[in-house]
What does this fold into?
Amino acid sequence: MLLDTLKKVLAVYGPTGKEENVADCVKKMLEGKADSFRTDAMGNLIVEKKGWEDGKTIMFSAHMDHIGLVVTDIEDEGYLRVTSVGGVSVAMSKTRHVVFANGVEGVVVCQPTKGETETLAHLFVDIGAEDKADALTKVQLGDVCVYAPDCFMLGEHRIASPAMDDRCAVALLTELLCEIENPKNTIVGVFSTQEEVGLRGATVAAYSVNPDLGVALDVTGWGDTPEVKLPAVKLGKGAAVKFMDRSMVATPCVRDALMAAAEKAGVPYQREVLPYGGTDGAAIQHSRGGVPAGTLSIPCRYVHSACEVIDMRDMESALSILKTFVNMEF
Amino acid sequence: MDLKTLCEMNGVSGDEKEIRKAIIEQAKPLCDSVKIDRMGNVIAFKKGKKGTSHILFSAHMDEVGFIIMDATEDGLLVFRPVGGIDPRVCVSKYVVIGEKKVKGVIGAMAIHLQSREDMKRVLPFDNLYIDIGAKSKDEALGECPPGTFAYFDSAYETFGDGFVVSKALDDRVGCYNMLRLMEETYDADVTYAFVVQEEVGCRGAAGAGFAADADTVIVLEGTTAGDMGDANPVQSICNAGKGVVVSFMDGASIANNELYRDMMALAEKENIPHQAKRGATGGNDAGAYQRSAAGKKTCVLSVPCRYIHGPSSVMKMSDMENQFALAQAFARQA
Amino acid sequence: MKTDEFLRQVTALPGVTGNERAAAEFIAEAFRPFVDEVKITALNSVIAHKKGNGPKVLICAHLDEIGMMVSKIEKDGTLRMQSVGGVDPRVLPGMRVRVFARDGMLMGVVGATPPHLMREADRKNNYTFETLFVDLGLPAEEVEKKVCIGDTVCFESRYVELKNGRVSTKTVDDRGCVAIMLRAAELLQKMHHEADLYFVSTCQEEIGSYGAMTCAFDVDPDFGVAFDVCHAETPGAPRLYTSKIDSLVASKGPFLHPYLVKKLETAAKEHGVQLQTAIDPRWTSTDADELSLVRNGVPSVLMSLPIKYMHTNVETFDMHALMEGGRLLAHYLSEMDASWEEELWT
It folds into this structure.
């Protein structure tokens, strides 16, 4: 079930650069359900499900990482100095409950700034350490903490979590690989790393996979809360087919095929023109001699906060679109 | 070749001819093959005794400097930086220009003639000129046509308690240690990449990475040490004299987790003074290597350099020795 | 086709970044008579191959243009736009634009709240994409039926011949340089060339040179020759970053190969073509930046056609400079041979 899979992957620790646990979790769920698994130098988990002989190779990418705070120094009093891994907002981090890989918990605090604009340099993490030596028994420089995993329903269809970007797509891709039998086209599912710092994992994965076409699965913005009007995308109105964002203009043939798949599957979808952001789709499109690529998005409110909200109906729409898409003629 | 000679040679990004030639001469007798690739990188390969694994060491040959843009009617050269140079360190510095090594000084209006407002302002490159003593635009551009590169004219000196001051320590120190590393034959195959154009966006390494067979890359660098003066201790990045700096993350790459852990453990085991880089800013060739072709595992070992990207960067010799020791220990067990 | 006729037609075509098919098809046909093979790539670049036995050379100029995309359809049937590439919204008010909808092209006018209805303070602010809209002159329900989010919106285009061989039109950036390549390909019909030539009209330059990057990967050339436009002198523009409009410009800087630049200067001198110099201390902001980095690297040069009013519908250039550019390129390419590779690093 999509929701169960989602809850599973939301619970796993996996900030940018330290995605191994997520990869393990996904691999376990896909055991016996794919033709091959491999992990590359960047930590991407690459899962292949063979299609028919005359089919094409489609690379799907869903990134496993999410944003976090990395420890760069420890004060004599035991407070941790941190900086962002990916786009962490200072405002959203203040007094957040955070957790490290080894389970050590902490609270993010912003020191008085004496009138300066608050920056990451003003933040510290209090892990309850007595002093530096005590802190060093729990945490090392380079360790990364994330907003503590959390997950709850908002009303009947919506669900909130700090890791929704992009674990909802990880769940989606996992389900696609689980459920699809004997697809026409070969599916290469890339559970990618380090998207939040510049599509780094997908860049090398696209090179080694060398697909005929590619689709990134990611969250997109929203335009349906007070004073937020763009993109013209609403929660619950279906998955969004991306036309462009700051990283790429989707290749027309791929974006049209995604819309055709939605029509064929008889599920709702939206068109997305996003004034900001980027996805692994760009990494695929710009790979080697150029690969037709697009992105199927899950509308998500409050992206990069501790409560990123999506609508499960959009997830269902996306899954139907993908199941149809992988059996289309390219 | 000693570090002094390497540092005093010139090689602004895109103009690495002189330093490239010197490095090739040094590397040829020590390696199995030495070639120049299409970016202008020097790629030296040394076959291992067992050849079971293949690692790549990389250091960049280029340094920050200047390029001549134009001249004023009265013969002053208009210039811009190549690579990241703070205009505040440029005022009243000595430079040499081009292959002919024309001597010049960077001048600005005398403070007596500056208004109070001007004196508070950072003088931008628009207000700085190189004076070579020319009397006219034609004379200036005849000697130094637009596109000619210029360098800090700065001698290498030792001072204090084991310290060195020079231009271009970033990253001739890495080049120097690579030339020392290749004196030994290891079990593993080793490629030594002396790359170009790091200071203008890690461009040489991108090309070297694409063509490299090795899947593990160790970058030898010089990195910012902010350990003196008023810098907030939590923003000092690293300390000169406290050993080789190992980076877990910077603006361009996140070190391979395993490689980083192994490197720290190796330094511990071999008793090599080392420090984790206390910050995640900046960026270097590791980023380009990591994302080239199908991806590579990377880790960066740096020598702390104070006042980097200026005519007088400062490092402690012991840190350079520790960078060498850790790189060598790594090569021996690879 | 004569160069001016080619320009007249090609600049009128839509080819906003990412949706360049129409422009690509036209350009492919224009090259066909002068080369051995032409193909359009998956991302809409055009690769025209003129065979030779010497070093492989990739010559490129981009065929895409900046423009807009429909980002939202308002309740009253007006369209909101998002810029594709660097569009200055200040050039848009009152412009007649073309919206490429499902069933064909629609004419629209870029409107905004009239100044009379604005508060005094707001009148001092420029229009932005938030305040501008496209009026199609259609009832809202008709707009809903005809137009979709994601439809391309293209600048108005007119080919205006000014005095002294100056011409003003849309997309001289960079189809003017495509015309230079085409002219060179035509001249090379009657010239000897050893080099294996790939004339590439690249897509997606305006958002990051992805066409050049991917085509260069595909072709794997030994040398690169990038063409783009640069700024011609206009009143008040900084002299350091502008050139005279009457001749081409060769760039120097760390990203460009000094040997290839020197050879270019020599060719210009020998054949009596005027050539200016520009210095790029770092990135050139053209296809040359990516082209020179592909695979193991591609030693490259950059030549530019100076134009005025870049990124507008009235980009203005000098036809003589353009034609001379074609002549210089043809001579440069015809002189390239294997010896150049050996001399690159000496």
User: Anything to note?
Assistant: The first helix of chain B runs from residue 3 to 8. The domain at 66-152 of chain B is CATH 2.40.30.40 (Elongation Factor Tu (Ef-tu); domain 3). The two ends of chain B are 27 Å apart (CA to CA). The mean pLDDT of chain B is 95.
